[in-house]
Specification:
Elements lengths: L1 E6 L3 H10 L5 E7 L3 H11 L7 H6 L3 E4 L6 H10 L3 E5 L6 H14 L3 E4 L6 H4 L10 E7 L11 H16 L4 E9 L8 E8 L4 E7 L6 E8 L2 E6 L4 E7 L8 E7 L2 E8 L8 H14 L8 H24 L1
Parallel strand pairs: 1-2, 1-3, 3-4, 4-5, 6-9
Antiparallel strand pairs: 6-10, 7-8, 8-9, 10-11, 11-12, 12-14, 13-14
């Protein structure tokens, strides 16, 4: 039985608690949250032990789940890693690049499992195309959200855009060549809306727009490659694939298109999206990595690389604003 403790039982933390209770082979030993009112509510509702000493909780666990605000990630991860405990930590990995580097090194030295909570890797709409032959050369992303004070301790880059940065870095087999970015702080002290262009050495270009002051929600990614267009709607859990027809497309809707190179047969497919709870799947994946001694689905290095690009974007935005 894997003993798990949760740090931070706010809005997202409660989702984690609900899912941990449904995962076989896991025992929730308790939680730590300094918010008195929230802690009393959770202790009563879930019947869970509340720890007032974070070290005591760490010592009682095999693994910890850190769902606290980003500025507490490093301190809590460090406590757990130094005691040889496995760590699941919400994105972003840490508050600063220096903290992220230290965590990567500590995980390597301690030989524990760490997974970063980039939950969109487990979105059913993304999983529907994950195993396809993907070689995108142009990616366009829109991630828009209505304003919510929760999570505003970090910029929209680290709050929302980092989801898409992580997925793009996992898809494009190339190093980043150049980043251009602009952003505006509207409701908070950090950028609330931003547009970013990432160019890779292999020629791929990604254009990302994120906003947390939108009137409507949107989480869409479009990918263009030599033989196909793929559209992923992370919010409505829909996927569309338009490509040159091949043997694998016999059941798909097809039509002919006249081109300068002659007639081409185009196939349009909407893969079946399996129902799935992305948070539960990522936590189950973490447990599986520990039990079967496998690499985690989103490693500390993945988390650091996404964070590194996010901070490069923030530097570009800061320099642009200073220039103005």
């Amino acid at each position: 039985m894997l003993k798990v403790g949760v740090f931070g039982v706010g809005h997202l933390g409660k989702y984690h608690l609900n899912n941990w209770k449904e995962i076989e082979g896991v025992k929730l030993v308790g939680f730590y949250d300094p918010n008195e009112a929230n802690a009393k509510e959770v202790a009563a509702h879930y019947g869970l032990k509340r720890f007032t000493d974070p070290d005591k909780l760490v010592e009682s666990c095999d693994a910890v789940d850190i769902v606290a605000p980003t500025n507490f990630h490093f301190e809590l991860c460090e406590r757990a890693i130094r005691k040889g405990k496995h760590v699941f930590v919400e994105k972003p990995l840490a508050n600063t690049i220096e903290e992220g580097k230290k965590l990567v090194e500590m995980v390597r030295e301690a030989n524990i499992k760490m997974q970063v909570g980039h939950v969109e890797r487990f979105n059913p709409a993304y999983l529907a195309v994950k195993d396809m032959q993907l070689n995108p050369m142009f990616i366009e992303v829109h991630r828009l959200a209505q304003f919510n004070p929760r999570g505003t301790e970090v910029s929209v880059i680290l709050d929302l855009m980092i989801h898409d940065i992580d997925i793009i870095l996992s898809l494009v087999p190339s190093d980043v060549k150049q980043i251009s970015a602009s952003g505006v702080a509207v409701m908070t002290e950090t950028p609330d809306i931003a547009n970013v262009r990432i160019e890779f050495n292999n020629g791929c270009v990604a254009n990302l727009t994120s906003s947390r002051i939108s009137m409507k929600k949107m989480r869409k990614m479009r990918m263009f490659q030599k033989d196909a267009y793929l559209g992923i709607d992370f919010l409505d859990k829909k996927t569309e694939i338009i490509r040159l027809a091949g043997e694998a497309d016999k059941g798909a809707f097809q039509f002919d298109l006249e081109t300068p190179a002659g007639k081409k047969t185009i196939a349009v497919a909407n893969p079946q999206i399996e129902d799935g709870n992305a948070i539960k799947m990522e936590l189950e994946s973490f447990v599986d990595s520990i039990i079967n001694n496998k690499p985690t689905a989103v490693t500390e290095i993945d988390g650091y690389l996404a964070m590194e690009v996010a901070h490069q974007i923030l530097d570009k935005i800061g320099n642009t604003n200073l220039a103005v």
